[in-house]
Design brief:
By secondary structure, the protein is mainly β. It has 5 helices and 42 strands.
Length: 575
């Protein structure tokens, strides 16, 4: 039943000890989900791992969107039409725009609060950032130069392109291009392309795509009937939002919408491949809101590199309708895995330890995937989810089938609708957001608006692994790379090194919102040789990706991983 509490006191879930949460997850929820095989899978995966730390009790906003930039600062933002936030803009800065919309626009005198912040990882501090237009449920990519290019939103923000360039003087704000988009974009998906542009796909009532910046006529967009064909007729434009868009190794785009996928040649606007329907046929995109990730790219050989996609969670097609009537059906507990480069691709289905909707999938430096946030019942939308998924789950792609999932230690803060998660340089995962309401609400609701930011530290950061943890000596962070270049990486390890278990990974930081991390990819670089270079110092020569199809130009985090323990990452810029 709803409860009432002061803004930042502990709520009902916070009072639950981890043991009680574990009992609830493993022994009570199966009564609801026994028909989905929940109990057996969960019990088999209980091992525990990882550590939670509260970084900030409040950053002033609820982080609906987050992006790590190459100066190790994270841009987070929610909505400008939600009314006053809990952080003020600097003196002299206010938002006097129009817009209205759900939640209402407060009078101009009340619009001197921020709806975007910049979080400094190193100092664990944050500052307000001014934005003028509404970027509620929008999308983004980081340009090759390292600027966050953010597109669409609500009301007056649907055709706006915004740019946030990293700075270290605490003075930068959002820059806005009012009509940077041809079509209104709300709930669309962005992806950076090999030529440096970004593509913006879909959105509410937008069964098409366009590019930014424009390389042709400024009014050009391209029809994509597939997006209309995969909607639920009963939900229409409300269904099939935030499609999963992933860059394949041949330069084409894998686009997954609800339960089907295509391979799109966006240059010629031709669908070059249609994939089988995911087993079960249940929807996976908003408002069913599963998640998807391109699994690590290994044995890099240009367009012949194998590419594999994992889609996990979501909710049945009737979940949204039922939640509107206060019937919160169980989410999906299945994952589908498919080799999208296979001549005859087939989905392989696996069961998660428990159902999850509104979860986020984050690729860790090791190549494992962390599934975090969300709920076990209901659907995405205001007040449409129940039973928080407190336990993250680690998915090990290279483990044998049946042993790939590992349950992690739970947090105490419900991370429901409008939560987000991003990998940062030291290997932790920042988690923030959760606002299942049309406005900020802190009392008399199941799940209050959450303004806090916390970090999940995977078990590879445990002190017991310190002797195995590499430290990169060279190259220096912010170094440049060329495609196909042999890169010599020097690193230190204080303990005994197993030379056969050293690899270098390169991760593109993602734009996280609504259960999907746009532009996320990890590459395991081809190793030329590993050698001792001095006392506790070693060298590994690796080959940089050979084209923008494998790694679009831009900033990446580079890690040395030894026996599944990663170093702190350094920034490299490939072009």
């Amino acid at each position: 039943m709803p409860y009432s509490k002061p803004q930042k006191t502990t709520n009902t879930y916070n009072k639950m000890t981890p043991k009680l949460i574990l009992f609830f997850t493993l022994f009570l929820l199966p009564q609801t989900f026994h028909n989905r095989g929940f109990f057996t899978a969960a019990a088999a995966a209980v091992r525990g791992g990882g550590k939670w730390n509260l970084l900030q009790p409040s950053i002033g906003i609820s982080a609906m969107h987050m992006q790590l930039l190459h100066n190790d600062k994270v841009v987070a933002f929610d909505r400008t039409n939600i009314g006053p936030s809990n952080i003020s803009l600097p003196d002299g800065k206010c938002h006097h725009g129009g817009g209205g919309g759900l939640g209402g626009r407060k009078p101009p005198d009340d619009n001197c609060t921020a709806h975007s912040v910049e979080y400094d990882v190193a100092s664990n501090s944050f500052r307000p950032v001014l934005v003028l237009s509404d970027f509620w449920c929008s999308s983004g990519s980081v340009s090759p130069a390292g600027t966050l290019v953010q597109t669409g939103g609500y009301g007056e923000g649907t055709r706006v392109v915004r740019r946030f360039s990293p700075c270290n003087d605490a003075e930068c704000d959002w820059e806005e291009i009012p009509y940077g988009l041809v079509r209104p974009r709300w709930y669309s998906t962005d992806h950076i392309l090999p030529d440096g542009r970004q593509i913006i796909v879909g959105g509410r009532r937008a069964f098409n795509y366009e590019f930014f910046p424009k390389s042709g006529p400024a009014d050009t967009f391209y029809s994509l009937p597939f997006l209309a064909q995969t909607t639920d007729p009963g939900l229409g434009a409300e269904n099939n939002l935030y499609p999963f868009v992933l860059l394949n190794v041949d330069g084409n785009l894998f686009i997954f919408a609800n339960n089907r996928a295509i391979l799109l040649d966006y240059v010629n606007n031709v669908v070059v491949r249609t994939y089988p329907e995911i087993p079960g046929g249940e929807p996976r995109n908003y408002p069913s809101s599963g998640s998807a990730v391109l699994l690590p790219l290994k044995n890099l050989k240009g367009p012949t590199t194998m590419a594999e996609v994992l889609v996990c969670g979501g909710s049945p097609k009737d979940a949204y309708y039922n939640a509107k009537r206060n019937i919160f059906v169980g989410a999906l507990n299945t994952c589908g895995r498919i080799v999208i480069t296979d001549p005859n691709p087939e989905w392989i289905t696996e069961e998660m330890p428990f159902p999850r909707v509104m979860g986020d999938m984050v690729i860790l430096p090791t190549g494992n995937v962390l599934i975090i946030n969300g709920a076990t019942n209901g659907a995405a939308g205001w007040d449409l989810g129940r039973n928080p998924a407190f336990h993250p789950v680690l998915y090990r792609p290279d483990a044998p089938p049946g042993s790939r999932f590992e349950l992690q230690n739970p947090n105490k803060i419900p991370r429901m609708y409008h939560s987000s998660a991003v990998l940062i340089t030291d290997g932790r995962v920042l988690v923030a957001g959760s606002n299942p309401h049309a406005t900020y609400k802190f009392t008399n609701v199941f799940f209050p608006t959450e303004l806090s930011m916390e970090a999940f530290s995977p078990s590879y950061l445990d002190p017991k692994y310190a002797a195995l943890r590499p430290e990169i000596v060279s190259p220096a962070s912010q170094s440049g790379l060329s495609y196909g270049e042999v890169v010599s990486v020097q690193f230190k390890v204080s303990g005994k090194v197993d030379m056969s278990q050293v690899k270098v990974t390169m991760v593109s930081p993602a734009f996280s919102t609504h259960s999907f991390s746009m532009n996320q990819r990890l590459l395991v670089l081809n190793t030329v040789k590993v050698k001792a270079a001095g006392e506790e110092e070693y060298g590994i020569d690796v080959v940089a990706p050979d084209s923008g199809n494998l790694a679009p130009s831009g900033y990446y985090l580079l890690f040395v991983v030894h026996r599944e323990i990663p170093s702190k990452g350094i920034w490299v810029h490939i072009q």
